[in-house]
């Protein structure tokens, strides 16, 4: 692992890896679960010393070094009453999330992180340093916005920022499973109610099951406005009898920390210690992120069947109780304004992300848990996703697969749709040795699961 402290050092390491054909990857926030930021027997470029953020209040731009986390950006921008569209979990790497697309609570108002990206300074496979934007290396900038992790090491990113005067309303609610029909009924109103300033996630987990020794409904609310407006908007859900309610007014830089405590990576220090030098590789935290998409309206029986399947799994395998499935209703109007061919990101359409983060402890369960996860995600996409709609066309409606959520074994053609041929041409131009292949390997149909 090479922990660099300058862009020139990044260039030296990348050039060395390419010249000697050494397995190579970059590590940002370390949140990927597919092995994309580790290289057994190879070089891991650690960017954790490159986390500076510069805010320009006059031009509403924020310049971010390639190893920064979203917390670095949120806090720096907040000092100037500015915000950037960034991840809902602020310990995630800025570059890792952005170059694959980048969803956040502000996506409903301002689109994806890539839709707010102005330029990226990137170290290419041969060690050269280029700045890509709409006007310079425009072909690379097209590829960077959605598949950037396959093209180089981003050492600096420039974002458009937005004015944010007040606090936002947000928090989590936990419900017993009998509230599911009422939650589904609310979601089915969501598209007609939202003006882009809201977000509503719900899903299932057994994590932190306070007072409930069963798989429960986890809801996450977001409203960019006053508390009274928010409480009015979410009234049908807030008036349900919740077991836990953490909703409150928060600063935007505080908002993106609310889910950190629910995440095992952030809770690592408070968890029972595991000796990572232990020779037995079969013990230790294992996690797998996998995504799908879902369209509205939801069928309550179908959602119940997903609950039942998930609940049966976490009950049967208590070590997987921290796993979760989330249906992420963040308004998609701004995202859909950009054509699927306008950037490499090819999942803009009338649907919403579903994420599943499954966690377990023993290697003997690897195949079993992963196959159940794949089964549930395929079932959601197949029975309730965009592909089941008559007249569905991936070129116009998008592929329905967010590359940062898709499992690494998902074929790249399914993720990038008709953009894959242009991506492969650009790959030949900018990375003919395929140095950057650990995220999704554009030159191959699919990677074997790690
Ligand atoms: C719990 C959880 C919550 C999530 N929430 C969100 C969310 O709200 N919104 C969202 O959009 N996504 C979300 N994601 C997905 C997340 O954006 C991706 O997993 C992302 O790739 C993580 O980036 P990282 O830098 O933290 O991870 P890493 O594991 O460090 O890196 C991920 C990939 O990016 C590459 N990479 C990292 N930094 C650079 C760089 N500077 N230049 C080039 N390549 C680089 C790595 O080589 C690797 O291939 C979530 C994931 C998890 C596990």
TrEMBL record:
Query: Per the record, a Pfam family?
Result: BBE
Instruction: Locate the transmembrane regions by residue number.
Output: none
Q: Is Cell inner membrane included in the keywords of this UniProt record?
A: no
Which keywords, in A-to-Z order, does the entry hold?
Answer: FAD, Flavoprotein, Oxidoreductase
Q: Which cofactor does it need?
A: FAD
Q: Which domain of life, per UniProt? A: Eukaryota
Q: Which residues form the FAD-binding PCMH-type domain?
A: 1-164
What family does the entry list?
Belongs to the oxygen-dependent FAD-linked oxidoreductase family.
UniProt name for this protein: FAD-binding PCMH-type domain-containing protein
Per the UniProt entry, what species is this protein from, by scientific name? Aspergillus pseudoustus
The organism that produces this protein has a lineage beginning with:
Eukaryota, Fungi, Dikarya, Ascomycota, Pezizomycotina
């Amino acid at each position: 692992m090479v922990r660099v402290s300058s862009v020139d050092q990044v260039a030296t390491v990348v050039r060395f890896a390419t010249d000697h054909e050494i397995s190579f990857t970059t590590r940002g926030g370390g949140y990927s679960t597919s092995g994309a930021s580790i290289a057994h027997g190879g070089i891991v470029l650690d960017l954790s010393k490159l986390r500076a953020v510069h805010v320009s209040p006059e031009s509403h731009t924020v310049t971010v070094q390639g190893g920064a986390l979203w917390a670095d950006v949120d806090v720096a921008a907040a000092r100037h009453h500015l915000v950037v569209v960034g991840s809902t979990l602020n310990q995630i790497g800025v570059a890792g999330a952005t170059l694959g697309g980048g969803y956040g609570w502000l996506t409903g108002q301002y689109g994806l992180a890539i839709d707010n990206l102005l330029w990226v300074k990137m170290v290419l496979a041969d060690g050269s340093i280029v700045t890509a934007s709409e006007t310079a290396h425009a072909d690379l900038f097209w590829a960077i916005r959605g598949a950037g992790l396959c093209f180089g090491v981003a050492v600096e990113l420039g974002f458009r920022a937005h004015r944010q005067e007040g606090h936002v309303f947000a928090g989590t609610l936990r419900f017993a499973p009998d509230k599911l029909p009422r939650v589904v009924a609310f979601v089915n109103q969501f598209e007609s109610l939202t003006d882009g300033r809201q977000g509503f996630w719900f899903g299932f987990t057994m994590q932190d099951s306070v007072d409930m020794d069963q798989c429960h409904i986890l809801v996450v609310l977001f409203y960019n406005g006053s508390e009274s407006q928010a409480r009015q908007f979410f009234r049908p859900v807030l008036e349900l009898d919740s077991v836990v309610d953490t909703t409150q007014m928060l600063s935007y830089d505080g908002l993106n920390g609310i889910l950190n405590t629910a995440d095992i990576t952030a809770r690592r220090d408070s968890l029972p210690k595991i000796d990572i030098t232990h020779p037995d590789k079969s013990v230790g935290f294992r996690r797998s992120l996998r995504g799908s998409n879902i369209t509205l309206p939801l069928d309550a029986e179908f959602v119940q069947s997903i609950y039942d399947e998930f609940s049966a799994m976490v009950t049967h395998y208590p070590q997987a109780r921290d796993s979760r499935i989330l249906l992420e209703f963040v308004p998609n109007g701004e995202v859909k304004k950009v054509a699927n061919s306008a950037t490499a990101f090819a999942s803009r359409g009338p649907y919403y992300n579903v994420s599943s983060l499954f966690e377990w402890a023993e290697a003997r369960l690897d195949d079993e848990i992963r196959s159940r996860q794949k089964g549930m995600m395929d079932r959601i996409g197949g029975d309730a996703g965009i592909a089941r709609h008559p007249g569905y066309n991936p070129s116009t409606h998008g592929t329905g697969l967010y590359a940062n959520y898709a499992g690494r074994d998902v074929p790249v053609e399914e993720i990038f749709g008709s953009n894959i041929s242009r991506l492969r041409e650009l790959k030949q131009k900018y990375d003919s040795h395929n140095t950057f292949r650990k995220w999704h390997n554009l030159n191959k149909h699919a990677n074997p699961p790690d």
